[in-house]
């Protein structure tokens, strides 16, 4: 099974438990929703990586009554969860954000919260998504930055090991992937009882697929790393909010 299929399977398995553990994800969705641009009365909106609808609900609260929202996710189980939202403006579609369905385009807003860190090729996907915007349309995307889970990385390094956490970008590197984009950085910590609770929370949201090539730890090494995280522990979340607007016609 390739990595994308593993990611899909992990999130599908977590559809029933996601909302109970998605505290940082809810905070990221709030940050993105607060940054929404003004939209025309009949705005066409595309959401990528809708999950169980954390951002979807916030978008529906803020969109004009005449707007339409197409919410998509790689995981069919996540799409099914979001489909339970009752709003005539909402359409649901299972779709890989890196391979948009044929015929899509002309969106006044494309929004995505904490899905882009799973993309295989972030730069190419950002360029492709910018091409789906209508003139004057906006791309607003929240993803994870380089300081995310730094405590978990440090606990690995203390044992001479590299963690399975991917190499997330710095803010300036993310902005450079899409000409004209700006990036805001929001850093906060999330408290956990201990490393076991931290890992359980990642399991509950389906976010335990490691970087490509990472080998699972032996039980002994894992115990030492978990002990190094401390009890209780605070773990960093580094949220990068990218904004890009297509030039008017």
Automatic annotation (TrEMBL):
Instruction: Enumerate the UniProt keywords alphabetically.
Output: Methyltransferase, Transferase
Is Transferase tagged as a keyword?
A: yes
Return the InterPro entries for the record: Methyltransf_12, SAM-dependent_MTases_sf
**Top-level taxon of the source organism:** Bacteria
Q: In what residue span(s) does the Methyltransferase type domain sit? A: 46-139
Q: Name one GO biological process term.
A: methylation
Q: Name it.
A: SAM-dependent methyltransferase
Organism the protein comes from: Paramagnetospirillum marisnigri
